[in-house]
Specification:
alpha+beta, Aminopeptidase, 3 domains, 13-stranded mixed beta sheet, 12 helices, BioF2-like_GNAT_dom
Length: 382
């Protein structure tokens, strides 16, 4: 067992050739660090776009035993790229043991907030478990399709009906697998922002740096790594598109969007399936849908490994205390309190990650609190 004893803090762009070699070696010995978010190329590509971005080198004696990419938000740190980075953790030796409170002190922070933590975590951390949802293409797309269809016959019957309706009404959609251009990224983000507005969720793209991150990452193309986009068009017009992040034989579905006028045809689901059919031929064997709770993910995937959402602190968290007080003050049933608290904490964490200016933070927090109070009052009245 190895414990980290010393920490250096550097900018992502200052990672040197030896750091890259060690990073890749740590990933090779860890079968839990799967996918593009743990790749050093991801960290180096987005580091220039994320405000207050750093990488901690963790030492055991004079030897580097691990790395932790993070962003600083006051006395809170978050994994680098939050809230866009879906998975994160310590990239280090398998036997590396982290004293998280000591790590926080070394980084000049009091709280570590995370939403897709992979790997060991402090037992005292306040956490919620989630499960990564995976489409296994190791035996081919057709084998995946038949397996899921047998398990969820009604869903796939409805998808077949949607496909026939698309063929009848439009003669099918034209599919393409493309590089992520600024024009397509901006179209996807426009649809996402409309979705945020309809749902009342915080718009993660108002801050500016998150869109810059995507465009910067789109320009970073390396062998077997980078952004790709699956696209449906009809007569040249965009119907649906999904930004994907690819690393070797792993693909992560990241930002799906579709034109609302095509909604009744389920174009998002049809596109995801068409992308899987296409990339399986290119050698992709594992498609990660993330760990969100959308019902369609459970139908298209099987559960894989766990990840954690939560916070670990070296001192009592004022934010957590305020959140507890707010939830207690809301007019709702006690059985609702846990889910409401988790939803509010998630929203506050997203705002903290995105909004690095005081004015942006205050405006977003005020709007979220107002919507929470209004929704709770409406639920109570109902």
């Amino acid at each position: 067992m190895v414990r980290h004893a010393r920490v250096d803090i550097i900018k992502p762009g200052d990672l040197n050739a030896e750091d890259v070699r060690l990073w890749q070696g740590f990933m090779a010995e860890r079968d839990d660090l799967i996918g593009p978010y743990f790749d050093v190329r991801y960290v180096m590509a987005i580091g220039q776009s994320v405000p207050k971005a750093f990488v901690a080198r963790l030492y055991e004696g004079d030897q580097v035993a691990g790395f932790f990419p993070f962003q600083r938000r006051g006395r809170t740190i978050q994994p680098l790229g939050a809230p866009l980075t879906d998975y994160h953790g310590i990239i280090g030796r398998r036997d590396l043991q982290i004293d998280f409170k000591a790590l926080l002190k070394s980084l000049g922070a009091q709280h570590l907030v995370f939403q897709g933590w992979v790997g060991p975590m402090n037992p005292a951390a306040r956490t919620t478990n989630h499960i990564r949802r995976i489409a296994d293409l190791s035996h081919g797309y057709e084998a995946w399709f038949e397996t899921q269809k047998a398990e969820h016959h009604k869903f796939f019957k409805n998808i077949g009906r949607c496909t026939r309706n698309v063929d009848k009404d439009f003669g099918g959609f034209e599919f393409s697998w493309e590089m992520a251009t600024s024009a397509i990224i901006e179209w996807i983000i426009e649809q996402k922002r409309l979705q945020y507005k309809r749902s009342g969720l915080h718009d993660v793209f108002t801050c500016g740096w998150t869109l810059t991150l995507l465009k910067t990452l789109a320009g970073y193309q390396d062998q077997g790594f980078g952004l790709r986009v699956g696209v449906f068009r009809h007569e040249g017009a965009l119907v649906a598109a999904e930004i994907c992040l690819i690393k070797g034989d792993n693909l992560h579905f990241w930002f799906p969007a579709y034109a609302e006028s095509y909604g009744r045809y389920s174009p998002g689901i049809l596109l995801s399936m068409r992308i899987m059919q296409h990339v399986e031929v290119l050698g992709v064997r594992r498609v990660d849908f993330g760990c969100g709770g959308e019902q369609y993910k459970h139908v298209l995937t099987t559960p894989e490994t766990a990840c954690l959402e939560g916070v670990v602190s070296s001192v009592p968290s004022v934010g957590e205390l305020i959140l507890d007080s707010l939830v207690e003050a809301l007019p709702m049933l006690k059985s609702q309190a846990k889910s409401v608290r988790l939803s509010l904490r998630r929203r506050f964490n997203i705002i903290q990650a995105c909004e690095v200016s005081a004015s942006g933070w205050l405006k977003a927090m005020g709007g979220t609190a107002k919507r929470a109070l209004s929704r709770a009052a409406n639920d109570q009245a109902a």
